[in-house]
Amino acid sequence: MIQRRTETALERCLPPETTAPTRLHAAMRYSVLGGGKRMRPLLCHAAGEAIKADPRLVDVAACAVELIHAYSLVHDDLPAMDNDVLRRGRPTCHVEYDEATALLVGDALQTLAFQLLAAPSTPPAAPTPERQLQMLTLLAQAAGSRGMAGGQAIDLAAVGLALSIEELEFMHIHKTGALIRAAVLLGTHAGAADEDALQTLGHYANRAGLLFQVVDDILDAEGSTVTLGKTAGKDAAQDKPTYVSMLGLTRAKELAARLRVEAHAALDVCQADTLRLHALTDYIVDRNF
Amino acid sequence: MIQRRTETALERCLPPETTAPTRLHAAMRYSVLGGGKRMRPLLCHAAGEAIKADPRLVDVAACAVELIHAYSLVHDDLPAMDNDVLRRGRPTCHVEYDEATALLVGDALQTLAFQLLAAPSTPPAAPTPERQLQMLTLLAQAAGSRGMAGGQAIDLAAVGLALSIEELEFMHIHKTGALIRAAVLLGTHAGAADEDALQTLGHYANRAGLLFQVVDDILDAEGSTVTLGKTAGKDAAQDKPTYVSMLGLTRAKELAARLRVEAHAALDVCQADTLRLHALTDYIVDRNF
After folding, report:
1. ∠ Cα B177 B165 B254 (to 5°)
2. 3-state secondary structure string, A176-202?
3. CA Rg, chain B, in Å?
4. Confidence category of residue B171, pLDDT binned at 50, 70, 90
5. Which of these, A57, B147, B150, B266, could form a disulfide with B142 (CB 3.0-4.6 Å)?
6. A107, A117, A146, A174: which to substitute to probe chain B, counting the most B Cβ within 10 Å?
7. What is the model's pTM?
8. Chain B 67-86, CB below 8 Å of chain A: which residues?
9. Domains in chain A, ordered, with CATH?
């Protein structure tokens, strides 16, 4: 339901393939549309629902955060980074098109994310310009050198190294957690959340981000390429430190179970209606893709 | 003077090398600081001066547009794009660091540009949040798939093709012109420009953008790698369509002369104090680097 809603919203905010430069626009649409778990939009909408935000406003935030996520995947998959050929069960952008186009696709998707959040908002219940600037700042901090891009830089440097569990957590809090956290907070900002709700949900989002990553590592170790929709077993093959490589499968699963409990507990102290966020937390763990 | 001012402002807005991830931050600073013509900040300040904007506000706009320019150079120089090893007389980012780092440097510089424009502005004479959102939108449009990134996509597709002069102009209006135009308009937005001034200066900026590109093509054909600070003669070697390859050197110079006259004429109809913009227009043509 939310996934289909997000698909439609993304479809609308991406430039049509018929507009020049057509090949770039086609490649942008190829990289964003048609698949993906849409975990960040789901979290964004669930958080927006918790504080009764207008879902049309949450759509904008959800698209912006998903475009940042999509751009990071396109660049991550490039030969200079993870050199991956499969994503969401299809050839990655640089395989389907070419490397230079994939580079520009990622660049242009990032720009579009910020353009969306800066666009004049339509009433009723449009956020104030001040609120829009807050949301832009939040997304930029989550995406930038001290957020997602910074986490990826640490990830690169960590290949082949023996990290401590704290270092691994620090890396993933930036690499994965920052954008998951931003998704939750952008959803709450789309409404009129108070400082208290923002802080509680921020705490939840930190746990959810790590949980998401631990489960990802477990799935990568256990899953097959077909169910995963991306090349499985890459982490071990690339000698990347993961929760599974550090803790072993059993203890990684125990960690996931503990993070799940902590995420639920964080939601329990929140005054808002967090029913859907509770459900999403379980979905993060129980998904088998 | 403005160049030193911009250098200081850029220095301050970039994360320090001592902050984690240190290597990424060092590479970001390497790619932005220490050189460059700073043509966009110069235009930004000249336009700001024309409408008597507070130079401290223009600094923010100038840094944002320069960060977008710097990110595009880092990505342009990558092996998948122009595969260039020399920039501003020094090894390009991916040569000095590595390809993956250069990819992340460009990504994070783009994010930082938008983060700067979205940051709470400090009085006195701070722009309204509405104005900040307009500036964000302007920069995003100039940088995105229908601006700079789109122009680069057309550029990629044009290698080895025989373009018409109109097609070449269309490409450069996007690739180079969009950001030059944005620099001028962001400078005027930092003050309280009226619609009339915005339109006139926008017309000027279009001519200045093309002029800048034609002169660049002439310099690439004529210049040596030492005076240029980047690898000379690359365009011909890569079979890229340029004004020189299409028109020959003599007619390309005639075109530059005509665009210079048109740019000055556009400024002459403007009510603002455009003394410095006039001077910059000549500087664009007469520079020998």
Report:
1. 80
2. HHHHHHHHHHHHHHCCCCCHHHHHHHH
3. 18
4. confident
5. B147
6. A107
7. 0.94
8. 71-72, 75, 78, 80-81
9. 2-286 (1.10.600.10)
